[in-house]
Amino acid sequence: MEIVILAVIIAVVVIGALGGLVVGSRRKKQLPEPPPATPDITAPPAEPHVGDEAETPRDETRRTIEEVDLPDGGTATVEEPPVVEELEIPQIEVPEPTAGRLVRLRARLSRSQNALGKGLLTLLSREHLDEDTWEEIEDTLLTADVGVQPTQELVERLRERVKVLGTRTPEELRTLLREELITLVGPDMDREVKTEPATSKPGIVMVVGVNGTGKTTTTGKLARVLVADGRSVVLGAADTFRAAAADQLQTWGERVGAHTVRGPEGGDPASVAFDAVKEGKEMGSDVVLIDTAGRLHTKTGLMDELGKVKRVVEKHAPLDEVLLVLDATTGQNGLIQARVFAEVVNITGIVLTKLDGTAKGGIVVAVQRELGVPVKLIGLGEGADDLAPFEPAAFVDALIGE
Description:
This protein is α/β, with parallel strands linked by helices. Helices cover 45% and strands 10% of the residues. It has 15 helices and eight strands. It has an eight-stranded mixed beta sheet with strand order 3-2-4-1-5-6-7-8, with helices on both faces. Strand 7 and strand 8 form a beta hairpin. Helix 7 runs antiparallel to helix 8 (170-185) and helix 8 crosses helix 15 (392-400). The longest helix is centred in the first third of the chain and has 29 residues, at 2-30. The relative contact order is 0.14.
């Protein structure tokens, strides 16, 4: 009996101990973690001020201006603003006076004398002038592009005068040939470029010609000739088909202070010519020079357009001068060009370019006979002042030499 009671007491004690352990473990799980002794407080980020970078300011050591090492011996380098280049204003040139210009260019013109002047003097100086010699004289004149009819006339006059002269010294032959060539060239023709209209200013000059004859350059050089004579000039860039033709003409004008009227590339040339004459009137200019397109004379449509330019210009005032520019080196082909242009517009004067070097001086005679109009200007080189008024006596002197 006592053993049973002892067993019961032991069982109760064990059960009670187990219950206490379960309750203790539950209490430990429910209790929160104790707070730290000193809480960590994070400060809010600082707001950036105006001009500061958007980051937290840092403590930095500050230095005065005396403590900062400056380049170039302690002087601060200040960047200078870039220099703006001023637009270059074209300088106005003073062209050479036209009086006696052909005489000054005589050396260049005389380069072509071998084909005509010296050849004729050599043949005429022979002791016996037989038929073979006269045929050689004819061939020399024809080779120099004098033309068949003028050649026959000149040879006949030379034959007669040589018979009358009898003896033939070099000086007598030179005088004889000079007189006959001057007569052949036509000393009595009016070679003045008409730039003074009978009614009111400006005088209107239209320049025509085929491609490659130097037409635009001649127009610019003619402006220099007129400015040298004290005239005010307006240029009309009516060659709207050739690229940069208007730029080229404007450059010539700027050199001598001439105003240039131009239109869009590929535009209506008649409109540009009309505006040029209109502005010339408004500005009170003395002369308007109109540079037309260097059209091929074989293209009928383009030639018709040249006639249109002429008609439109004449709505302002009649043309005072129509100058045909011919390349002196083209010979008889130049005469064909001259005929076609004369049918479209009333040619009043001729400008012969490239009359130096290998050119043949006889073309002066041939083209005048073909058109019945005088050669008024000749070009003798690439220089700006190498365009000269044509003077028959100076021209012949250059051909036959001293």
